[in-house]
Design goal:
Rossmann fold, six-stranded mixed β-sheet, seven-stranded mixed β-sheet, 12 helices, signal, Leu-bd, Peripla_BP_I, Amino acid ABC transporter, 371 residues
């Protein structure tokens, strides 16, 4: 009996010492986890969580000590003011890096908080060019920006769809308006004519007033800069008003949820764009989709592969620098160059993903089909 007690005590001491030698490194994840686009926010968080779980399963050693990564998830509600509040909360919690935020409108003001604290952040989904043009050394993104996406959208609408007259609507967020502005430039450069420019909000559900005005100018195509929570109901109201223009939106509407929200109003004249390759064409896409489904019992929405690679980039930089301290691993993060789920993850001097691809999709047979 005494020998058993002594043996258990020694075993307990050994486990305690091993645990004491383990270093906990906290990473933050921020996205809207409540509200109309919470499905996209949870998708972001799940992608980051899966990357952290993979790193912990493999076992990571930094500065001679085993590291266990923890993810601190925060809900910014897609609200800029809340975004800065939770950013400060993560800084106060001593996170060593952040994956997020989702929306450009929250990411840009939050990036100032992280910059002041010296905490690197990698957004998997904020596409407004302003984010990486502020001169902050610790700001990166794993997704193409709106200049790249808007340029392709404008060429596609005029060149591929043959639209000569185009109406443009945006939700007046940094993302929606920014993408609409870039698309408008590209439409005009391609020889198209913008016959209406209207705006709504990212909380609206009734678009009859602006759509009635647009019906009067009979555009060949309508572009909407905003999220699926507005794009879906907007399609329904277009059908109710008898507007038969082709409908095009950006990555915010390129989700399975958009199809659900649009119901029978969505058809083969509905298109969306997505920065990056189609998941089936991503080097690690098919495997990621299978693992994601098994782990979270839900399908990939949009951004989780980009969130996975964002978290992986931070972890790999820490390993390369042999330090989890932001000031020490930041130079390694800048030099990132690895094969991720989405393809090669490497950043330019501004922090944008190099050679960011953009894919156009068409609604076919109940799903988004890459063109």
């Amino acid at each position: 009996m005494k020998r058993s007690v002594v043996a258990l005590a020694v075993l307990g001491l050994g486990l305690s010492l091993a645990h004491a030698q383990e270093t906990v490194v906290r990473l933050g994840s921020v996205a809207p986890l409540t509200g109309t686009i919470s499905h996209l926010g949870k998708d972001n968080e799940n992608g980051a969580r899966l990357a952290i779980e993979d790193a912990n399963a493999k076992g990571v050693t930094i500065d001679g000590k085993k590291v266990r990564f923890e993810l601190l998830g925060e809900d910014d509600q897609a609200d800029p003011r809340t975004g800065t509040t939770v950013a400060q909360r993560l800084v106060d919690a001593d996170v060593k890096g952040v994956v997020g935020h989702l929306n450009s409108g929250t990411t840009i003001p939050a990036s100032r908080i992280y910059n002041q604290a010296g905490v690197p952040m990698v957004s998997p989904s904020a596409t407004n060019p302003t984010l990486t043009r502020q001169g902050y050394p610790g700001v990166f993104r794993t997704i193409a920006n709106d200049v790249q996406q808007g340029g392709m959208l404008g060429k596609f609408i005029v060149g591929s769809l043959g639209a000569k007259t185009i109406a443009i609507i945006d939700d007046r967020t940094a993302y929606g308006q920014g993408l609409a502005d870039e698309t408008e430039k590209a439409v005009k450069a391609a020889g198209g004519k913008v016959v209406a420019r209207e705006f709504t909000t990212d909380k609206a559900t009734d678009f009859n007033a602006i759509l009635t005005k647009i019906r009067g100018v009979k555009p060949d195509a309508i572009f909407f800069g905003g999220m699926d929570a507005q794009a879906g109901p907007m399609l329904r109201q277009l059908k109710q008003l008898g507007i038969e223009a082709k409908f095009v939106t950006g990555d915010g509407g390129c989700s399975p949820e958009m199809i659900k929200l649009a119901g029978d109003a969505i058809n083969a004249t509905t298109y969306c764009s997505m920065p990056g390759l189609a998941i089936d064409k991503m080097p690690g896409g098919p495997e990621f989709r299978t693992r994601y489904k098994a782990r979270f019992n839900t399908d990939v929405q949009i951004y989780s592969p980009y969130a996975y690679d964002a978290a992986t980039a931070i972890i790999r930089a820490m390993q390369a620098a042999d330090s989890a301290e932001p000031s020490k691993y930041l130079p390694a993060l800048k030099k990132s160059n690895f094969q991720g789920v989405i393809g090669t993850v490497a950043f330019d001097d501004k922090g944008d993903i190099k050679e960011g691809a953009v894919t156009m999709y068409q609604y076919r047979n109940g799903a988004w089909s890459p063109m």
